User: Fold Immunoglobulin domain-containing protein from Triplophysa rosa.
Amino acid sequence: VFGDEVKSVSVMEGDSVTLHTGLTELQTDHQILWMFNGERKIIAKIDRDTNKMSIDLPGNNDERFRDRLKLNDTTGDLTITHIKTSDSGDYKMEIIGSRQTKHKTFIVSVIDEVKSVVVMEGHPVTLHIDIQTHDVKWTVNGTDLTDSRVTNSEVNHQTGDLIISNIRRDQTGVYRVEITNRGSITHKSFYITVMDEMKSVVVMEGDPVTLHIDIQSDDVKWTFNGADLTDSRVTNSEVNHQTGDLIISNIRRDQTGEYRVEINNRGSITHKLFYINVMDEMKSVVVMEGDPVTLHIDIQSDDVKWTFNGADLTDSRVTNSEVNHQTGDLIISNIRRDQTGEYRVEINNRGSITHKLFYINVMESSQRSHWEITGPVCLGGLILLIVLIVSGVLYKYYRRGLNKNKDKSEASEQLKPSSNTNGTDT
Assistant:
């Protein structure tokens, strides 16, 4: 009897896996037995003496592998199709010959679908295993968690969940857990993407915008709202092949959203996140101190969020305001001069997000009285000036007409023949 050879195999749930005997061809005296989880319960068998191959063996009531096992009658390899997480465990193979018996053990780890987790740098994150047990073993990028750089983590001893506080960018990677629950071994896999703090970019509709990654690399992959940029509606964009920056020209309102970039710089993977807010053209509103003003959004919606100079309106100094719950318009009564500033609104209309921007300029009330006094005077003076100019022009043409008539009269007199009253010459 030869010593046990042990081999570890990892496979994704739903895939197929083949456990190789290492033989190119079975000998005539060979008998191969396949067993699961150390039990002597045989799940598959080949007997060259009788030239029989068996999978559904009599007396084997374990139906976990029903219609999912295949045997290669030449090599004895065992294939498990449509593998499940419950198929994780030890598969023992025995090759019995006339002279010797060989053993081989395969430790099969079935990983369920990798769960993708995106978290902002500095935030906490919890990876839930959804099985209450304390018998777990966590690894990150193949390294035992206790020996890794994830020092800001702990395992919940009741649930087995992994808790990472104040996560760093260098903690991006694959997190796997081996869960032992009443003798059954299950595996789960997570991929954590640690993003830079989201950078918010505000741009006016029709303007260009450039998203800078601040790392010179041509190996970048940009996505827009989760879709690859090449497959998205952002057709007016290009990537700078020297810097990796994304350039969008003549941006549209439907290009408001989340832009992510994966940067591969000499094997080091970095992720950055941007949120572009495409605004309508800013509407400027001038109002006198003490007057009311209404900012119209022109879209009937009650799902709106107003901000004043970047602060939520409910937390700002605009206490004399209310939102019309039918139209979403903002109404400010008796406005003050310290309420001059930028008013933004995010409008959610049946899942479609729109943004609008207003700038209110509150004028001093003294300017109102100044205008009330000087306004009519200035207007009257302007009218008088126009009348004088018009009168002067008319008088000029009138004088020119008189001079022309006088000149014509004098010329006519000079052309008349003179008369001789003393008789004719001799």
